[in-house]
Write a structure and sequence with these properties.
By secondary structure, this protein is an alpha+beta fold. It has a 4-stranded antiparallel β-sheet with strand order 1-2-3-4, covered by helices on one side. The chain starts with a helix and ends in a 10-residue tail after the last strand. About 20% of the residues have low confidence. The protein binds zinc ion (ZN). Zinc ion binds next to loops.
């Protein structure tokens, strides 16, 4: 299908992560991998602070159980609350 070929060459010439998209920088990679450690549902992201395409601070919220996980210094903390050492 010509359309699929066009898409493929596009993704070849453009690094998706280089595209500055406030909704898809870290999550385009990580959000596909990250799921709620408690119930394995998808996580939704709220960004508090970002630098370029890096998310420095924000909150991941589980779409299943509603648990929230902080992102601090660009690192998502996916430990369940009772395992966090704060
Ligand atoms: Zn969950």
């Amino acid at each position: 299908m010509p359309k699929a070929q066009a898409l493929r060459s596009e993704s070849f010439s453009l690094d998706a992560r280089a595209l500055r998209c406030t909704m898809c920088s870290m999550r385009s990679d990580l959000m596909e991998i990250l799921v709620c450690p408690l119930c394995k549902a998808e996580l939704s992201l709220a960004v508090d602070q970002e630098d370029g395409d890096e998310i420095l601070a924000g909150t991941l919220t589980c779409t299943g159980c509603g648990q929230t996980f902080p992102i601090e210094d660009g690192i998502p903390n996916l430990l369940p609350p009772d395992l966090r050492d704060e």
